[in-house]
Amino acid sequence: MKTFDYLGLVLKHELIAIKESLVELRISAIVILLLVGGIIIYLKPFPFSGITIATSYQGGDWYQFGEAAIVPLKERGIHVDVVTTNGTIENVEALTDPKGNVNAGFVYAAALSESQHKELYSLGSVSYDPVWIFYRNGLASKITSIQDLAKFRVALAPKKSGSYILAKKLFEVNGINIEANPNFVSSSWEDSRANFLSGKADVYIFIATMLDPLVEELIQSRDMTLFSMPNALAYQKKFNYLDAVTIPAGSIDIEKKLPAQDISLIATTTTLAVRKDLHPALQLALLMSSKQIIQDSSRLFFSKRNEFPAYVDPSIPISPMARNYYNYGPPKGTEYLPYWLVVFIDRFWFVVLAAFAIIYPLSKLNFHLRRFRFIIRERTHYAMLLKMEQEITGKQLSSEEKEKLLKKLDTINKQAILHFVPVGEEPDYFLFVNALQLLRNKIERA
Questions:
Q1: Helix or strand or coil: residue 51?
Q2: Which of 187, 188, 194, 195 has its CA nearest to residue 152?
Q3: Tens digit of each residue's pLDDT (9 = 90 or more) over 268-309
Q4: Does the pLDDT at position 219 exceed 70?
Q5: For residue 406, pLDDT beyond 50
Q6: I need a surface site. Which of 51, 67, 211, 363 has the fewest CB within 10 A?
Q7: Are 137 and 223 contacting, i.e. CB atoms less than 8 angstroms apart?
Q8: How many Å apart are CA 343 and CA 330, to the nearest integer?
Q9: What is the pTM of this model?
Q10: Which residues, other chains included, contact 123 with Cβ-Cβ below 8 Å and sequence gap of 6+?
Q11: pLDDT at position 1, please?
């Protein structure tokens, strides 16, 4: 017999033994399968839904970030939908709506209430977003402080945006109630922009990253001036969600020396928030994709290349998955294995380890199911022979008793031969046949 023929026969007999064992122990097998299935369902190693990200107005910086996330998430087998909104408050409303399908979104944590903070998880901040205050050049001599801005017509973002709420807080700390002042007008993103550009408003206040198209448009305009925030560091000390940032002179356009001098701004950070019930694998994929987007960006301005994502604003509790990511990095093997397999191993590793801890020692015992089952059957037949041996020892048998015992031996012999003899166990089988013949001879002589 050739080597591969022998190995094929061994495999065949092992499979036959497994089949017979499952038939005999079907109840136990069903219980084990149900237990394993229950563990898998409980651990949820695979995500069963995609990601729907609430962003901002179409074309805005948050919208651009959401669109940029589609490709890296798709590479990991995750479908992404990007939803446009009026900003932070609408995003939170969508995230906390139990009937909604939005499960991730960009927010300014500083614009939310404490109760809203508790309903979400933070995956960390992804960018610095300055408070942009633009005004017309003709007002340059009249505006030197935040209080001066309130004397003119001010265009504000929608009331359900973080830009509006943070602007309200900014003026409140300077003793101005924007809701009671008719100079402050909140409208849609499109209308507020149009009112400022058309001259219906003298000042425009909003929050965005340096990547926002509106920022790029206004900062390049010869008719607009960007307000430099006095005492920016004081705001950073006063509010834990604000940072002082600077646009260095000439950093936007060196040739045109734009801006002509350093401009001080205050900035908050964009938090990537998710539902608490969003699958950890989807959270991880979203966080890893965010890091990839930020690292690949050629337009970083206020942040360093490896600064974000990071858990900067502690207002929203950090996701346990995100905490693990920041402490230990992504799961090992993400660069070499399919994402679904990495997720399965990461979520199911201790079950695999427990199974290995059981199987490995058993494998060291040279445990072969085909041999084990053969020994059990053979032991039963040997027990029957032993009992007959005990019955005839020291006893004179009659012809009828001899005939009865010989018939019983024939029955045992038939039972033994009906069961297949696994490969490698032939010597043991013929030892049994030899024992059978010895007992037959002893009965005939008795």
A1: strand
A2: 195
A3: 999 999 999 998 889 999 999 999 898 866 667 888 878 899
A4: yes
A5: yes
A6: 363
A7: yes
A8: 10
A9: 0.68
A10: 271, 272, 273, 274, 283, 286, 287, 290, 309, 318, 319, 322
A11: 53
Per-residue pLDDT at 223 exceeds 60: yes
Structure tokens at 11: 């495999």
Q: What's phi and psi for 237, nearest 5 deg?
A: -75, -35
Q: Is the pLDDT of residue 2 over 80?
A: no
pLDDT of the residue at 175: 94
At 9 the three-state DSSP class reads helix
Residue 304 CA to residue 429 CA, distance in Å, equals: 76
Report d(CA 188, CA 268) in Å as an integer.
21
How far separated are the first and last CA of the chain, in Å rounded? 44
| Bridging pattern class, strands 184-186 and 154-156 | parallel
Query: Which residue in the block uniquely carries the two structure tokens 């701004």?
Result: 265
Q: Which SS3 state, helix, strand or coil, does residue 275 take? A: strand
Q: Quick one: CA dihedral 306, 308, 310, 315, positive or negative?
A: positive
| Tens-place pLDDT, residues 3-49 | 666 667 767 777 776 776 677 667 776 777 787 777 666 666 566 67
The mean predicted confidence, pLDDT, of the chain is 85
Cβ atoms within 10 Å, residue 55: 23
Phi, psi of 186, rounded to the nearest 5 degrees: -100, 135
Give me 175's structure tokens. 């003793």
Give the Å distances, CA to CA, from 379 to 59, 371, 408, 427, 432.
79, 12, 17, 15, 10
pLDDT of residue 54: 96
Predicted confidence at residue 366, as pLDDT, reads 47
Give the 3-state secondary structure of residue 186.
Answer: strand
> For residues 248 and 243, what is the distance between their CA atoms, to the nearest angstrom?
16
For residue 445, the number of C-alpha atoms closer than 13 Å in the C-beta half-sphere is 9
Rg over CA atoms, the chain: 39
CB atoms within 10 A of CB 43: 14
Rounded CA separation 26/9 (Å): 25
Residues 6+ apart with CB under 8 A from 445: none
219-234 residues labelled b (16+ CB within 10 A) or e (exposed): beeeebbbbbbeebee
β-partners of residue 289 are none
Q: Is the pLDDT of residue 332 over 70?
A: yes
Take residue 340 and report the two structure tokens written for it.
């679904």
The tokens of 29 are what? Answer: 């097998």
The residue count of the chain comes to 446
As given in the structure block, the two tokens for residue 21 are 């064992």
Single-letter amino acid code for the residue at 302: F
